[in-house]
Amino acid sequence: MKMKLLFVAALLAAGAVAMPAVAGVTLDNVKKRGHVLCGVNTSAPGFSSADSQGKWRGLDVNICRSVAAAVLGDADKVKYVPLSSPQRFTALQSGEIDVLARNTTWTMTRDASQGSVFVAVSYYDGQGFIVPKEFGIKTAKELDGATVCVQSGTSSEKTLADYFNSHKMSYKTVVFDTTEATQSAFLSGRCQVYTTDMSDLAGMRTLAQDPSKYEILSEVISKEPLGPAVRRGDDEWFQIVRWSFNTMVEAEELGITKANADELRKTSANPNLQRLLGQSDDMGKLIGLDKEWSYRIIKQVGNYGESWTEFFGPKTPLNLPRGLNRLWTDGGLMYAMPIR
């Protein structure tokens, strides 16, 4: 009897490995609704911002667009829900959004106790400081006694306290609920220093009437791995969002772009490339999607490097060095899990 039970258990385990993913509640809701609900920052140049026509653009925006392309066949089937920092995790838990893509730092507290689970690191960042050049401040060690603008509900608050306390320096905070209010307060002179992620500091500086009047200090005082998150408990949706982002990175690794995807689909003999372009193994069935899910992401949204160049690259106002966000083959940390 014991041997029979072990044999049956082994058969069940083997079958479980081979079975495709079963659609979860989020995927069902997205298909019925006809669009993905994407929680974004209200004003984060490079990550998410709306232009004068109300069109949203940015790296986080493209992450949600990749999910829509994979699931619904159209990257534009996304409704963007602007959220402040204190609102974002509540909105995710309550079902107001399907994906939180709001340049949010992946921390243990957020990943383990707020009903969310992070999908990937989409941008490796770190916290820093910006000051008016007229103050003549060159290093963060000169900020003792400073008045610092910081947004509430962010990891920046805790990191700020840790940094000043560890260096036995005093400071006074001026706290606001929204990105816009925090930025406006700093630019209007209500505080001497503004602290947040380095990418946000660069974005905020572009909003100043004269960006040359502000200096981003060189010190990076924390690790800020930014990435999208989904509700905990829906493993199928988690897989879809994770592999949609991995598709963008893997496409860059393989040299596939929006422009050459169709040609490579016809001519390349590379099995990894053909798999990603939906020409060989059906990877979509593993996550409840069709065979061409990843091809649509590349064709409609593009690879990770294309998003980087468009939103952070040398022809943008941000003009940020790619740094740690280079591919692993170029000495960076950006690395796609194998799609095979």
From TrEMBL:
Q: Which SUPFAM superfamilies match?
A: Periplasmic binding protein-like II
A GO BP entry: amino acid transport
The UniProt entry's coiled-coil ranges are none
Q: Which family does it belong to?
A: Belongs to the bacterial solute-binding protein 3 family.
The uppermost taxa in this organism's lineage are:
Bacteria, Pseudomonadati, Pseudomonadota, Betaproteobacteria, Burkholderiales
Report any Pfam family annotated for this entry.
SBP_bac_3
Domain Solute-binding protein family 3/N-terminal as annotated: residue spans: 35-264
Cite the PANTHER family for this sequence: AMINO ACID ABC TRANSPORTER PERMEASE (PTHR30085), AMINO-ACID ABC TRANSPORTER-BINDING PROTEIN YHDW-RELATED (PTHR30085:SF7)
Transmembrane helix is among the record's keywords: no
SMART domains named in the record: PBPb
State the name under which the record lists this protein. Answer: Solute-binding protein family 3/N-terminal domain-containing protein
**Keywords, in A-Z order:** Signal, Transport
UniProt source species: Sutterella wadsworthensis 2_1_59BFAA
What does UniProt give as the signal peptide span?
1-23
